[in-house]
Amino acid sequence: MAYQAVEEIQVRCEKENIPFWKAVQLEDCEENGITEEESWQQMTLMWTRMKESVDAYDPSEKSRSGLVGKEGGLMDEYLQNEKPLCGDFVSKVIANALKMGCNNACMKRIVAAPTAGACGVMPAVLVTYCREFLIEEDRMIEAMYVAAGIGQVIASRASLAGASGGCQAEIGSASGMAAAAICGARGGSKEQMGHACAIALKNLMGLVCDPVAGLVEVPCVKRNVGGAVNALAAADMTLAGIISQIPVDQVIDAMGEVGMKMDVSLRETSLGGVAVSPRGIEIAEKLGM
Amino acid sequence: MGSIFDILGPVMVGPSSSHTAGAARIGYTARQLFGEPVKKAEVYLHGSFAATGKGHGTDRAIIAGLLGMKPDDLRIPAAFEEAKKAGMEFTIANRELKNAHPNTARVVMENAGGRKMVLQAYSIGGGRIRVSILDGIEVDFSGESNTLIVRNMDRPGCITEVSAALSKEKINVATMQVFRHKRGGGAVMVVETDERIPISVTEELRKKEDILEVISLNLEGRNG
To answer: Which residues of B touch A43 (CB under 8 A)?
Structure first.
């Protein structure tokens, strides 16, 4: 049985004296009858595809609606010519999150992590970190396992689908996964990884899913930036010694409950939020949606 | 199902796992079940597929799948042009399908000789699908396992014949479902197996008197 709680992962780490990522990998191998090598290979492929996807961005492409496409390029230019408020590293994270969101909208190849709409958060955090801090690839693949383990728990206790839990289930979950992963990659303990995830999830709790014209474009592309930057802040807070007063599994339960209470108009139906703002409706009508 | 690669993955062409990757998977599964190139295809989109399919590339993804492309194929955005190159004619229309899941597509495939197959399937998110109707009979399978589909007359002994043919080749049955129109009429067996289903099994079963048609779907390894 896959993990139902982050605490279960931490308990197994303790019992077998293994790192967080290993506990995730072993459980999945046992569950699906594959070897650790096969699992590692598959995860390496996911990591490779993520990197390829970041690099495949082309600022001259536009989505079929024409609403998004150039944002990643604009951020790159700004980064080269100006002094961004967020500094070099975070600005690159922002650029990569935008690139991935645009890639997805432009029908390029991405890794759903955990969903296509939220595909920019993990690579923005992990690929950028790996490249800017010159980290060994193996450490990043371990971080991918951490993220997957967290995602699995969120899937079992709450939801990863915008249609059931709103955008907190997509961008929120991606942010929680990335926060735990980067925290671990920076040397955080298994407890700190849990705190980082909890803080990231709390900060995005209640986030609604309100795509304009039903497309994974507005506001989805930019929300990937929100998820990525939030993950970095949550990881840094945790590494500074700040803890989440609410345990991570209880935060996930709360998030599941918030998702269930969320009105259906705010769960990927395009009947609420910015989707029904005057401009949102105008865009939808123009596109014939 | 609980693989971590359902959380990190699938690798897919955007923008939506349900409306793009799932749609491509529907087309791909249909093509695999048809077993040969599709010469002419009619695609009908229902519910959310009809409402937002265009913006999500649902139409292109299904056509790509019918051409044999998987959900991560970079040619999906150019599927209409690829169909032209491959000489496949197609039409796409919105249609209200009775009692269907919101993300449903119906595909009518025809080969050069006029043989037809009708498949209806729906996308359940994360790039996964369920096939719900095959040639007029209600079924329920994912297309993620090796699958044997047997159309037979609803008579005693058919299930034994199928399981005997499989066990002779040491093929382990994972799930088995039996559907029928009415007592003594047409029936369908859907058997999901752990191992690939060799041609010898399908050929042996085709010779049986009460078995009308045998279709097998074999996986080519994990997607990614």
So the answer is: 4-5, 8
DSSP string, B142-177: -SSSEEEEEEEES-TTHHHHHHHHHHHTTPPEEEEE
Domains of chain B listed by start with CATH number: 4-141 (3.30.1330.90), 146-217 (3.30.70.260)
Per residue in A159-168, pLDDT (tens digit) is: 999 988 999 9
Q: Is B80 within 8 Å of chain A by CB?
A: no
Which ipTM did the prediction report?
A: 0.94
Query: Alpha-carbon distance A227 to A203, whole Å?
Result: 10
- pLDDT band of residue B224 (cuts 50, 70, 90) is very low
Which residues from chain A sit within 8 angstroms of residue B172, using beta carbons? none
**Closest-CA distance of chain B to residue A81, Å:** 31
Say how far apart CA B103 and CA B62 lie, in whole Å.
12
Reported pTM: 0.91
- Candidates B1, B6, B11, B101, partner chain A, best to mutate (most A CBs within 10 A): B11
Cβ separation B55–A108 shorter than 8 A: no
Task: Give the mutation candidate from A26, A43, A62, A110 for the B interface (greatest B CB count, under 10 A).
Answer: A110
Work out the average pLDDT over A111-137. Answer: 98
Which whole number is the average pLDDT over B112-121? 96
Taking the alpha carbons at both ends of chain A, their separation in whole angstroms is 42
pLDDT digits (tens, 9 = 90+) for A74-105: 999 999 999 999 999 999 999 999 999 999 99
